[in-house]
Amino acid sequence: MTSQSFEEATRNLLPRIRPRIYVENMKLMLRKHGKVGEASMPEFRRFTDEMMVQIVRDSVDRMTSVHMDTFQAWGKSFDDVYQIALANLDALPDSLTLVELQRTKKSAVKIYTWEDGYGLSRLLLPQLRRLETSSDVFALAVDDRQLMVAQANDDEVVAVMVALAAKFVERGMVSSQLLLRQQGQWSVHQLAEAHPAYSKLLALQRLHLAHCYGAMNEKLQAESAGSMRICEVGTLRANDNPDRLRAVTLTPLEGPPPWAVPVADFVAIPADDGFFHVRWEAFFETLESELAPMGVYPERYVLRTISDEQMAELSQWECEPELDLED
User: Fold this and answer.
1) pLDDT under 70 in the chain at which residues?
2) One-character DSSP codes across 44-82
3) Cβ(268)–Cβ(252) under 8 Å?
4) What is the DSSP letter of 192?
5) What's the predicted TM-score (pTM) here?
6) In the listed set 53, 68, 91, which residue is the last one of a domain according to the structure?
7) What pLDDT digit, counting tens, does each position of 104-135 carry?
8) Residue 257 falls within a domain, yes or no?
9) Residue 325 included in any domain
C-alpha cells in the first residue's frame, strides 16, 4: 500500500486485539532473522499487560496487518489511523451469538462470540452495545473470538466467571486478567486475598502463564542455537478435577548450564541424588548477582552457573512444592 491508497483503505481499517504472546513470538522470529525494529514489522499498542492492539486492513478474502512503513507512506501516525479504525468498528453490525449462559442471584455470566471475528476488539469501544447497563461490567478475554461478560460487581459473579474460564486455559486463553469497566474505562481488577475466588483466579493465571512460557520455548531454543537450556514450566495440581484450578508452577534446571529460567513458584535445583526444590524468592535472592534478564515476555533470566557456595546456601532453603492455596 502507498500513501495514494490511504483514502481507499480508510473504510476497511479496523482495530484488532492480539494476545501479547503472539506479538512476542513474532518479535523473536524477526529477531532471529535480524529484522527487529524494521519498518516492515506490524505496529502494536498495549491494551493490558497481556493484550495488544494493532490496525488491520480487512478485505473480503484476507486480513492484512498495517506495518510501520505503511503508516509512514500514508503520512499518518498510529493514533491517527486508530481513531478511524475505531469508528469503523463502532459502525459494524452487532453480529453476536450467545454461546453460554450461567445465571447467578444478581446477574448472569455470558459468553458471546461475534461472527465478524472482532469480538475482543469491542473492548475498545466506548460501550459494549447490547451487553451493558449502567452497572459495572466484568470481562474475560477467553479466546480470539469469544468474550465473557457479566454486569454485577459481586463475589458470586466473579467466582462463576473464573470457574467457566477453566475450560479455556488448557488450550490457551488470550488473557487471564479479570477486567472491570467503570465509568467507561477498563482496568485490570485485582481480587483481595479474602475474596472467595482469589485462589482459583491465581491458579488460572499461573496455568495461563505456564502456557505462555511453553509457547515461547521452541522459538527461544531456535534463537539460542543450543547455547543455553530453555527451562520449561510445569504445573502441579491438587487433584484431577480441573474445576478446582489449584496449581503451582515449577521450573526444573535440567542439563548443563547456562539456563534460561522462567519465573515460577518453585525452582528444582539439580543435585547428586536428583533435585531439591526452593521457592522462587529464595532462588532469586541467592543468585540475583548471577541472573540477567533476557528482555522477553514472559520474563526469563539467564543463569550462567551456580557456585558451590551458592548451592550450599540454596540447600538451606529446600522445601516441598506443596499446593498451599485455600479452596
Assistant:
1) 1-4, 34-40, 129-135, 238-246, 323-327
2) EEEEETTEEEEEEEE-SS-EEEPBHHHHHHHT--HHHHH
3) yes
4) P
5) 0.86
6) 91
7) 887 889 999 988 888 899 999 877 766 655 56
8) yes
9) no
